[in-house]
Amino acid sequence: MSYLTLEKVGKIFGSSSVVSDFDLAVERGEFVSVLGPSGCGKTTVLRMVAGFERPSFGSIRIGGEDVTVQPANRRRIGMVFQAYALFPNMNVRDNVAFGLKVAGMDRRAIAGRVEEMLSLISLGHLAERYPYQLSGGQQQRVALARALAPRPKLLLLDEPLSALDAKIRVSLREDIRRIQRELAITTLFVTHDQEEALSIADRVVVMHRGRADQIASPLEIYNRPATRFVAEFVGTLNLFDAEMAQPGVLRFAGLNVETPMALTCRADEKIVVGLRPETLSLERRTEDDLSVTGTMLSTSFLGAVIRAQIDVDGRVIRLDMLNRGAGRLPPIGETVELRFSKHDLLVLSN
Ligand code: ADP
Ligand code: MG
User: Where does this protein have coiled-coil stretches (predicted)?
Assistant: First the structure.
């Protein structure tokens, strides 16, 4: 049985349903990211797991035990929030020791555990500092150490990196993952940042309006999005309206493409075809390449990648090429052939 399971969990605030039919099974030691736009219910899910909110429906189990109505202080959960919730009047050492004192651990054991945690986050040299004397990234490290010190059963992180600068955000997320692996602690990590979710997690839950649209590995979320929402929220996507010209033949952008995808959809559903910018090319790559004609509009230099904006029938299509591989870019206004493989088509309905 999975270590953490949410079964048909729902939450109603007043008359609005904020989370519904939420199923999730997390294995012991797994790192799962909960990804979605602001307001989709991520924090509410986390608060229900922590015991700060009681589900209106469904059940939650941790380590085989039904905790649906168990109070937060009996769940042994470590939490880290976006705002550095350190105790401002305590130094780093005392912040990290806090949960251990509450648990009644003896002083020598506390001292040992605190040293261990400080070395884990590489802040042993700052043990005497107070929170106001630390950078945002250092404060979040301390918050992490404080959450982990009492050996919680679960680690829950709610947008822990969102307030930090881009560089610190990346290095701290790598540290969080390293520490999580070292301790093999089962972790739920909430974020609205798709790159963060894909890069850090074993599996990602993409939330949309209180529901889990897809739960899968980062690669699968990106390469095989289950819904149009997932496809558009994760990564960049070019979309074309499409229709089934006849069974097995998809028509879009003036093309008729035989598709192996058995797409069954209701008459009132619209089909769209998505293409990721990096699957498009201005050069012919294989005999079977499909192509549409467009006009170069502009280019943006993104560092590793150069992104071209190309007009195809009044629609702006984005194409990415590696900086090294770019060669000469067609000038603005030039007519170009956009080439792609039918295997890269994401056929989606809504
Ligand atoms: P997220 O973390 O994804 O941004 P939240 O879980 O914080 O989303 O909130 C989801 C929705 O639930 C929002 O519309 C929010 O306003 C509403 N909500 C959250 N907490 C409460 C509450 N205690 N009372 C009423 N509405 C709430
Ligand atoms: Mg939130």
Answer: none
